[in-house]
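User: Please predict the structure of the protein below. I'd like the answer in C-alpha cell form so I can feed it into my own downstream comparison script.

Assistant: Understood. Taking the following sequence of 180 residues as input:
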Amino acid sequence: MRPNVTVVRLGHRQQRDKRITSHLGLTARALGANHFVLCGDNDQGVLDTMTDVTENFGGDFSSEHHAKPMSYLRHFSKQGGTIVHLTMYGEPHDSVTKDIPTDTPIAVVVGGVKVPGEIYKLANHNVAVGHQPHSEVAALALFMSELMGGVAGPEQFPGARLQVQPHPSGKVVIDRNEDS
C-alpha cells in the first residue's frame, strides 16, 4: 500500500515562484502524493493547474492554500503524522528514508525563500538529497521515488480522460472522451 503523502510548499511568492511551485505540485502528483498545500501567497493559478491536470490525467489528488504553515504542520504532527523536511542540511536520504514510517500520513516540507528555524525542530526527519544548492523539484522527485520504493507514480491514474501512450518518435495521447 502506498503511503498517504502531502507535499507542503513553504514561502510561495506569486510573481516569482509560480512555475517552480507548479512543478513541485505536478511532481508530487505524478510520483504518488495525495495532497499539495501551498503556503505563502495565495496563488489560485497554481491551484487551478493542479486541479486541471488531475481532471485530465486522473487520480485522487487535491490541493489547497494554507495561510499559516506552522499551524498546519503543528496540527499535522499532533494528529500523528510524520513530518519530513527536505533540506540540503539534513541527513543523507539514502540512509534515512527507509526509517520513515509509511503507515501514517507523511507531510513532505519543501522550502521557499526563508524556512523558519522551527521547521528543523518540528520535523521528524530533516532529509538531504545532496549537500549542495539544488532544485526543490529535483529533491522532491528523488525523495518521492525512494519513499515509494524506487518506483515512479502509476503510468495510468484512475479516472483519467487523457492517457499518454509511449511512442519512440512522436506524441500519442488518447482522449477517452473521443472514444465515447
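That's the full C-alpha cell string. Strands lie at 5-12, 35-40, 62-65, 82-92, 106-110, 125-128, 162-164, 173-175.
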